[in-house]
Design a protein that fits this description.
7 strands, mainly beta, disulfide bond, Thrombin, subunit H, Peptidase_S1_PA, 1 helix, 7-stranded antiparallel β-sheet
Length: about 140
């Protein structure tokens, strides 16, 4: 049945990759950010979710990702082969509950994934080069 907004009341959220496809080079997508977790000693990292750099120090991602995020890598080949060569890495210590680095939409609901928007604030503003401001319209 349809709910008040016309949407089906029994819809179950499913993760999806929009567009799919093969990435030939990490340099094709300079605003892609690998949001990562790490082992206890911080020596080994793995991708948890992706994000988009939308301002010199702001990454847009999904709110459900934030509790596991400990680190952000930008401009790395890790998105292709797990190598982590090149790029910039930021230690975000404290995980998704650290208000200095993480924010979720005020109406985010982890049960339904409504308003599943999260922001990661990097500890440093990046120099995106002349006339570049991050991903978005015209980027």
């Amino acid at each position: 049945g349809a709910g008040a907004g016309g949407a089906a009341a029994n819809v179950v959220p499913r993760p999806r990759i929009v567009g799919g496809g093969v990435i030939e080079s990490a340099e094709e997508f300079p605003y892609v950010v690998s949001l990562q977790n790490s082992d206890a000693d911080g020596k080994r990292h793995w991708n948890v979710c992706g994000g988009s750099l939308i301002a010199p120090d702001i990454v847009l991602t999904a709110a459900h990702c934030l509790p596991s995020v400990r680190r952000a890598e930008i401009g790395t080949s890790r998105i292709l082969d797990g190598g982590g060569r090149g790029g910039l890495a930021f230690d975000l210590r404290g995980g998704g509950d650290d208000d200095d680095y993480f924010r979720v939409h005020d109406r985010y609901d982890p049960k339904t994934l409504d308003y599943d928007f999260g922001i990661v604030r990097l500890p440093t503003k990046l120099d995106l080069g002349p006339g570049r401001s991050g991903a978005g319209a015209g980027a």
